[in-house]
Amino acid sequence: MSTRVMPFRGSLTSREQVSVYEFSWAAIIFIPLAAVLIQIFIPVKVRFMPIVDLPFMVTIFFATARRNPITGCLTGCGIGLMQDLFAGPGLSHPLGMYGIALTIIGYLASSLGVKIDVDNPGSRFLITFAFFGVHQGVYYGVAHGLLRQGVQWSWSHTAISALANAVIGIFVYKLLDRFKQR
Amino acid sequence: MDTFLGRYRNLIVLAAILFAQIIGLALQVRRPTDAGETRLIRLWAVSAVTPLESAVIHTQAWVGNLWTTYIYLHGVRRENRELRAEIGQMKIEEARLSEDARMARRIQSLLAFKEQYIDSTIAAQVIGTSGSDQSRVLYIDKGSNDGITVDMAVITPSGIVGKIAQVFPDSSQVLPINDQFSGVGAALKDSRLQGILKGAPNGATTLQYIMSDEKVVPGEEVITSGGDRIFPKGLPVGRVVSSEPGKDLFLNIRVIPSARLDQLEEVLVVTKITEKMPDAKDLGPLRASDILAERLPTVPNKTEVDAAGNAKPGTAAAPGTTPAGPGTATAGSTAAHPATPGNGGSKPAVGATIPNKPAGAAYASPTTATYGTVKPKATTPANGRAAGTAVKPANNASTTQPGDSGAQDNGAASPPAKKRVKPAPESTPSAPSEQPSTPPAGAPPQ
User: Fold this and answer.
1) Residue ranges of the domains in chain A?
2) From 2.40.10.340, 1.20.1740.10, 1.10.10.10, 2.102.10.10, which CATH number describes the B40-74+114-276 domain?
3) Distance (Å, whole) CA B330 – CA A100
4) HSE of B266 in the Cβ direction (CA atoms, 13 Å)?
5) Using CA atoms, how far apart are residues B293 and B258, in angstroms rounded to an integer?
6) Does A87 contact B165 at a Cβ distance shorter than 8 Å?
7) pTM score, two decimals?
8) Burial class of residue A101 (count of CB atoms within 10 Å of its CB; 0-12, 13-18, 19+)
9) Chain B CB within 8 Å of residue A114 CB
10) Tens digit of pLDDT for each residue in B394-423?
11) Which residues make beta-bridge pairs with B223?
12) Is A145 touching B (CB cutoff 8 A)?
């Protein structure tokens, strides 16, 4: 796998280098689009599907693979806004709720991707599990704090969803690894 | 400065992107009804993916239909036999219920109650969801081009689903009843307690705003109350699963929806609801007394009688007098032909006759037509009737002559009548022979 390498920016003293993957433009456009479309199609037949958040996983995948916080922010913002378009009526779900949440996730994931090895299934599991909680927390903060919506927070539901996403994410990331340019 | 920007470039970009989105949120919240850019971009997005969604779903449905209709027929014969048996049982039940329904509609007609009827519906296919755990909205394949508008009710034969939240040209967004932003006027079917059915983030539905001192038992059926002006009254909503005291003096009643909201494929959008009176003509065959009432001639105004019992030509009977509807009978020719000059206005002898009148007719609605000179509002029984007047139940419709209401009244106490009203069949309830002639004032209609 020929990949660009970059110095580890997290510490001035470290000389560790990590791989930075690149993707084709088609992959950058169509993978998030497919993730959002699958997310709104599949639950018609598979009702537990809303627990699984494919756009969230794709955001983490691109952010950790490219390891650039700015592109991570932009990727998260784009995917989140695309998800917002279908997420609900305008009054209860204005554009930007998922956009803000995934922008922050994209930034954090790409920042973390610079510092640790994110190609390991174990670290992927932990990153997905932890960031899903962050994602839900940011969403709740936007809905409750900014928009004053009466949304409820459920620790158990969030934990189960995070676990499901973390497990399924391992396989999704494995699939998406094929689109990394060699 | 360059060093600062270079060092914190990532954070600055992050802050700028977040700031832009927060400003966008604020603008949308500030202008919630503005159909501007936000609405337009949603319109573009949904319109772009709707053909794809429809194609995928319809192809899947076609393949599934091919399998279930032509290939997978195992067990159809047995299922057909079971369904026939079930139809037989339902026919028996239907016969019993239809009689009850006819009686209820007749009473509603008498009381001038208006019912809501679903006039027309459009069948639609569910083609997508929000794809989000926080929102449970659905997308259907019918939009404004098919006549769908916002706030139309969406139902299935088994129960209500939700309402139309947004409409696009070829698709619509449905806000189901288990969404956390949904609210439906609902009532408990047996106890008639009314509340609001609300959804929750986890998809549960609860009936709220019912006082904690009320008794609600699990298993009780929940129906729409019609209070939200979206769903017609009486549609099945769900069933009570549990009821426990909540906060703020209200019960926390968990309800399981009747419609399988997690397995919806086809739904009905209610496009037209009308309010009208139940038509008693449609309730069944006409009775002999009704036919007779239609064929009988109208009766001229009655004459008033003075204190001595002599008729005063040109005066009419009091509005407060009890009319003799078709089917009521009087004994004796004197009372039966009150319109005859010098005869009809004469006061009947005490103990002679008064017209029989069913209880329900005493509370006739404004639409209830009566013979003679009686205005509907003034049909209170026993009004103006001489005390001690004997009552004789009527049992022979053939002897009935309309317009004899003034015959038994104290004519001197009766103001002149306004006009004659042509009777309607539904206004003439049958007069059972064993029924007492006049109900007490204030008695409920039967």
Assistant:
1) 24-37+51-179
2) 2.40.10.340
3) 85
4) 6
5) 47
6) no
7) 0.60
8) buried
9) no
10) 444 333 343 333 333 333 334 444 444 444
11) B187, B236
12) no
